[in-house]
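Lecture notes, part 5. Sequence design as translation. It can be helpful to think of inverse folding as translation between two languages: the language of shapes and the language of residues. The source text, in structure tokens, appears below.
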């Protein structure tokens, strides 16, 4: 089955953005992620790009942009994957990071980590549990 070239371009740009984000090359991450966002068609791929943009915004101290992207990301994930899904868990984990880093609200972050752990599995669940332990 042939994949849509728009989806392939968005996925490739997302992967480049994630790699740049991990390497601390924020300019390259921003460029790649904005390119991915422009190309992202399927809602859950767009949500994955927005997730990376939230993390980039938090790293750069751009809390207002991060919050806006977080809201859209969570909305897409809930609408297209459901409230009880791994995608919802990812939204809760992202919300927990936002609450801890941007709002310095560790009690609220702990509650979000707790929600995240309910829906995540494997490494993502372990990260959520670690976040919960760090927040309390």
């Amino acid at each position: 089955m042939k994949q849509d070239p728009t989806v392939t371009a968005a996925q490739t740009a997302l992967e480049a953005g994630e790699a740049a984000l991990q390497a601390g090359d924020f300019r390259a991450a921003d460029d790649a992620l904005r390119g991915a966002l422009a190309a992202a068609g399927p809602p859950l791929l767009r949500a994955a790009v927005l997730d990376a943009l939230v993390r980039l915004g938090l790293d750069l101290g751009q809390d207002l942009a991060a919050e806006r992207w977080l809201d859209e990301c969570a909305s897409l994930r809930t609408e297209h994957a459901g409230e009880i899904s791994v995608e919802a868990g990812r939204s809760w984990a992202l919300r927990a990071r936002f609450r801890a880093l941007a709002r310095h609200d560790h009690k609220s972050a702990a509650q979000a980590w707790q929600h995240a752990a309910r829906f995540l599995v494997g490494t993502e669940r372990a990260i959520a549990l670690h976040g919960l332990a760090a927040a309390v």
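The translated text above is only one of many valid answers, since several sequences can fold into similar shapes. The radius of gyration is 15 Å.
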